[in-house]
Amino acid sequence: MAEILHRVTLAAQDDFEGWREAARALVMHGVPPESVVWQVAGEGGDLFSAVAAMPLPPVGGDGGFNVPRGFIDIARTAIAHRDPERFALLHALLGRIRDWPGALADRADPLVRRVETMARQVRRDMHKMHAFLRFREIAEPDGAVRFVAWFEPDHHIARMNAGFFVRRFATMRWSILTPEVTLHWDGASLCEGPAAQRADAPAGDPVEQVWRTYYASIFNPARLKIGAMLKEMPKKYWKNMPETALVPELIAGAQAREAGMIRTAAKPQQGHDRKAALAALAEEARGCTRCDLHRHATQTVFGEGPANARLMIVGEQPGDQEDLAGRPFVGPAGQLFDRAMADAGLDRGSVYVTNAVKHFKFVPRGKRRLHQSPNGGEIKACRWWYEQERLVLRPRLTLAMGATAARQMFGKIVTISAARGRAHRLEDGGEGWVTVHPSFLLRVQDEADRREEYARFVEDLVQVKERLTALD
Ligand code: URA
Asked: In testing the pocket of ligand 1, which one of 299, 437, 441, 457 has its CB within 8 Å of the most ligand atoms?
């Protein structure tokens, strides 16, 4: 076993800055991860006090090497994982990145995958806290009301999540108690207290009124699937939640509300409202678990483009590069798409570009991740996001590229060759067009055939552009 030379004591379980400073110094001084013991102050005693600890000379400035933004983001999240090995794993990954800044893109690397999995699990836990935390009301000595909630996160996420609750309940006084830390907001400032126990939180019913304003504001009747709701909601949170009792009432009003929602969406919206609505959708989609694809994908790749775009172009699903970049059509198919758009005289910047399915589906093969087409269930699960995008955008014209996009657009399987080259009336009143997917063009082996197919694809885009002008 390697001799332990260094002991690092972090201020807290989620002390990212402390870890970062120490890890940079360790990497700069060539200290391998197996020669370091990571501890958190005040936790588990000083197990390694007998170990000689060599102080690390400080590393100034940026630590002597540039760290890609992507690593900082992933490390900041993964640091909150409950796995005690995370500090060492991130140290190892930082070392690798120093030698090869592209190391994070090596998706087949077990270390990269492990760190990504940790970050994903932390993000899901944060999302669960947003969704499942419930406040109870207590009277403060000055007669004011304070809302108190007990929550047991799976990871060290309480502090990381504080900003969300400050924004959401900015005008209330509240406290969130967890087994690790307590957070208190008085309407102006946030402060922290020691760990709590369940018994410290008030018992009894969660606050109906607060819940009503919060939950009713996020309750979306179009998403109403009770089975799925209960499945997604871990059992341990059920008892905290009054909406398990209120669901029937919500269901009763659901249809009326849905009709209302559609009416509201049908009204011409101000540009900034649509922009905000799209941004809120994209944010919500980050935590999407509607199908299993989120488990292995790096992130949700939502649509992008102006909120007042008249043309919506739909692809199949993000590919390997899109999954890493978090943006649609940036890889090889995206480059071909960009070229064809330019050749057709269409400006990508004025078009809303999205995918039928918002997570990358793949099978690992050695160091590569091979694309797999989404199945019917996955397409259907993602329909929710596609429909929401349409409700906000209300595009005049929609172009589906490939069979998956066409299936999402029509809600059923269609043959591209049969549907291509003409306008279709869509259920929501828009007009739909169909063409091939750019990756089909990349797969055509014969060069002459490929040129011909490319020209047809550009022709389809030109036709769409002309139609859009005609609809003006
Ligand atoms: N293929 C797609 O369908 N969408 C992308 O975003 C990239 C490749």
From this structure: 437
